[in-house]
Amino acid sequence: MEVQRGTVGDRSPFEELVKAAESTSLVTTIGKLLSAARATEIPVVHCTALFRADLKGSGSNAPLLRAMTRHRQHILEGSPGAEICEGLLDPASDMVCSRLHGVSPFTGTDLDSLLRNMGITTVVATGVSVNLAILGLCIEAVNLGYRVVLPLDAVAGFPAEYVEAVVANTLSLLATRTTVAALIEAWNR
Predict the structure, then answer these.
(1) Fold for domain 15-187?
(2) What is the mean pLDDT of each run of 10 residues along the chain (189 residues)?
(3) Within the chain, where are the H helices?
(4) Where are the domains of the chain?
(5) Do the beta carbons of residue 44 and residue 37 sit within 8 Å?
(6) pLDDT score, position 71
(7) Which residue in 14, 25, 26, 56 could disulfide with 21, CB within 3.0 to 4.6 Å?
């Protein structure tokens, strides 16, 4: 979820989010998980957010979205910032599901159809940010009937205390919490 150069990478204007991702080696950790998924033929879908230069299709119906549309250069469609962080995308096998609006990947995208057509019943949620997008992904996935697995070392947000509170008080009710190492071990059995 949104592990893009313009969110947690070298083109990000979000200093605190970049620090949170770096403090947990988020990109490297997700890279290990994705490699293991591909090795066991588990489909990988990257959910990205981006803006068109003319903002067609993007909403501004929330304070965050209004701010984002005013400062959209970091994830402008076709720009380096919209790219998935280096080393995570395997164009030969991975799928990319992009959205132009909203704060989570299921609404207004083909993500649900894509997953259902592959027979997927469990979603492993990784990326940023726990503050909103990961939370929204988990809620929507559960509402659509998916099981959700949340490797805690493969998500980030800020401040750390808030992330801990969201995980303990909300995400723990929606998702099975685990680690990347435990998932990889389970897949290799």
Answers:
(1) Rossmann fold (3.40.50)
(2) 97 95 97 98 97 88 77 90 97 96 91 98 98 97 98 97 98 98 96
(3) 15-23, 26-39, 63-70, 111-117, 133-143, 160-166, 172-174, 180-187
(4) 15-187
(5) yes
(6) 75
(7) 26
